[in-house]
Structures are given as structure tokens and as C-alpha cells.
Amino acid sequence: MGIKQDVKLEMSALHYENLMTLSVRINDEKVEVKVPPTLSLAVILRNYFQLTGTKIACGIGRCGACSILLDDELVNACLVMAYQANGKSITTIEGLSKLSLDEVQEAFLKQGGYQCGYCTPGMIMAVKAMFDRNPHPQESDIEEALAGNLCRCTGYGGILRAVKYVMNQKHY
């Protein structure tokens, strides 16, 4: 399958005076692209690589819709500039699982952990990062993990059910 680059967008970046070659691993695939060094990863992922699961909402790191893993650490992609990501590994919602849904994705689906779906990729990335760090989270760990993600639709009931569903599956 592979990651597809949008050459038109890459060429449109040429009007910038200083471009850098961003060399990263996205979802286990090494890629390089010329970009302005201060362009955010959220814009790069969506517009240069068509990885639209990374949402852009607030643009200031408050909502978590753009959450990704950068070298296995949860970050807001809207706050990470190209030059800060150079040489690093990025995992997006599209890269959590290759052949089927990741168990966190499946739990969100089965337990109704979404409504409009806009915040869902960021929520899933936050929950996945939490379980990767702590296979047996306490209630306070769950609250902390979700503190950087906003959802205005669900009231968080389905999201919490999804987290507890994963915990009960004993995969972590």
C-alpha cells in the first residue's frame, strides 16, 4: 500500500525561501519530503501524505484531535514543527494496525466510544499511548490520559466504556 505523497502540494511549498528535507518514518515506512521547517506535522501528515485521520481542530494543542505518537510519545501534531520531527518515528491512527483494527480501535467501535467521530482518532491514540505506558491503569491514569482530548458529543461515557472494555480483555 505505502504512503502516497502529494507532489502538487510539495511543489507549492517551493515559494518558501527555506525548505528542509524532512526525513521521518511514518507508520513504519521511511519517507522524505521537502517542507518549510516551521510547518506543523498535522498539516504535513494530512496534506503531504493524505493521512487524514490526524485531525486539525484548535491548532493550539488544547483539543487533542491531532494526537499522534512521535518516537512512541503522545504529542499534539499541531504543535510539532517539521524541524522538530526530523529523523523521528511517527505513528498515526492509520498505522496502529496493518491488517485489522487495533484492540483499542475495536473497543471504541464496540462500546460506542464515538459520536461525530472527529475527536475519535486523537482519543484512540491517547488511550493506546496510556496502555503502552501502563498496562494496568487506575481510574486516575485514565483521567490523566484523556485530559488532553476534548469531545463535545459523547459525554465521555462511551469512551470510558471502551477503555474498560480493553482492560477487561486482559490483552494489556
From TrEMBL:
Per the record, the domain of life is: Bacteria
What Pfam families does the record tag this protein with?
Fer2, Fer2_2
Where does the record place the 2Fe-2S ferredoxin-type domain?
A: 20-96
Care to name a GO molecular-function term for this sequence? metal ion binding
Coiled-coil intervals in this record?
A: none
Q: Which UniProt keywords apply?
A: 2Fe-2S, Iron, Iron-sulfur, Metal-binding, Oxidoreductase
Task: Specify the protein name.
Answer: (2Fe-2S)-binding protein
